[in-house]
Design goal:
This protein is an alpha/beta fold. The protein is 49% helix and 11% strand. The chain has 16 helices and nine strands. The protein has a nine-stranded mixed beta sheet with strand order 1-2-6-5-4-3-7-8-9, sandwiched between helices. Helix 7 packs across helix 8. It is globular, with a radius of gyration of 21 Å. The protein starts with 10 loop residues before the first helix and ends with a helix.
Length: 354
């Protein structure tokens, strides 16, 4: 909901903002506190020992819990949200997307700029590497364009490379439809999930794109309040939301160790469909993948990267049944086919070639 002056004193709102800032709590623990504490002032008075007693587990003292300061920051966040017209959607709000609520660790709060209603529309998540080939960027743009023209929202992470091109395709679809006098209400839009606070665009070079997403009726979302600093683990947290917002995740292009494959792992864990675009196996993509794999192997030998990162490759997903598609139209067809059919054919072809 968009905030008004009256909301700044709303007990539930400030309590939720206070709990959302307590990143050392699990979702279930935040929900428990929300149900058991009837006033945000009571939460602010709790010591870390009180919180440990309530949750039944010990916390590292480095959490630096300060109830009064946490409350002050929550109230400040509410004021900034009102000033910037940022909507706040809590886990138990009717506006919260049910598909996201079903994942194992959904955000307690979502901060949204733009069309919040998109979070409940048909969608597909589109992800990929930052170091994409020309074929990959073309495929991402085309897929985003065709999906939106079909009334499906495109979810991605606003990152450089494939993510940005998927958003660009969706933006282009809007402007083309507008120019042609098409019914805009039937178009899909694009949703950008930020790893940063809702009032900060990361990467900075995509600020104009973020503005165009809002201009074309899209949405920017984050689980982090305005003004909150960014941490490395926020990027993985962002990936789980991208995977959680759609019934399917399409990987356009991603070499070993790519963050896009972490998103694909999340989607698999959520029992969502994972598909790969054929651009991921194109000649230039294979060359990029070979260079990346060689670098990862060297870094793995020196203990700089994990075995998971080294072995997390598109081939793993294909062996597990992920289909390979040509374009958006082929994606729609693949979603109606028997699971594993396409991947089995690819594996057989690879064995024959070997």
């Amino acid at each position: 909901m968009l905030l008004t002056q009256t909301d700044l004193d709303d007990n539930k709102l400030i309590l939720n903002l206070s709990l959302a800032r307590m990143t050392f709590l699990t979702l279930e623990e935040k929900k428990k506190f929300a149900n058991n504490i009837d006033n945000y002032s009571k939460l602010a008075l709790l010591s870390i020992e009180d919180i440990e007693k309530e949750t039944g587990r010990a916390f590292k003292r480095k959490t630096g819990w300060n109830g009064a300061e946490n409350l002050r920051c929550a109230q400040n966040a509410a004021r900034r949200c009102m000033a910037m017209k940022i909507a706040i959607v809590a886990y138990d709000d009717p506006e919260y997307p049910e598909i996201l609520r079903q994942i194992s660790d959904p955000p307690f709060l979502l901060f949204c700029r733009g069309n919040v209603g998109l979070l409940k529309e048909r969608s597909v998540s589109v992800v990929g590497t930052r170091t994409a080939s020309a074929a990959g960027t073309k495929a991402a743009t085309s897929f985003g364009y065709d999906a939106c023209m079909d009334g499906v929202c495109v979810v991605s992470g606003l990152a450089n490379g494939i993510d940005g091109y998927a958003h660009r395709g969706a933006i282009n679809a809007y402007f083309d439809a507008q120019e042609k006098g098409m019914e805009l209400s039937k178009l899909g839009r694009t949703i950008a999930v930020l790893p940063s606070a809702i009032d900060e665009i990361v990467p900075g070079g995509h600020k104009k794109m973020a503005e165009q997403i809002l201009q074309t009726g899209g949405c920017l979302i984050s689980e982090y309040e305005p003004g909150m600093g960014i941490a490395n683990w926020h990027f993985v947290g962002r990936n789980r939301i991208i995977a959680g917002l759609s019934p399917a995740t399409v990987v356009i292009e991603a070499p070993a160790g790519s963050g896009a494959l972490i998103t694909a792992d999340f989607a698999s864990d959520y029992n969502r469909d994972v598909l790969f675009h054929e651009a991921a196996f194109g000649e230039m993509a294979e060359k990029i993948a070979a260079v990346v794999a060689g670098d990862l192997e060297k870094r793995f030998s020196t203990g700089e990267v994990s075995k998971y990162k080294l072995e997390n490759r598109p081939e793993k997903f294909i062996k597990n049944g992920a289909p390979v598609i040509k374009d958006y139209k082929d994606y729609c067809k693949a979603m109606t086919e028997m699971p594993g059919l396409r991947s089995a054919k690819i594996i057989q072809q690879k064995l024959f070639e070997d």
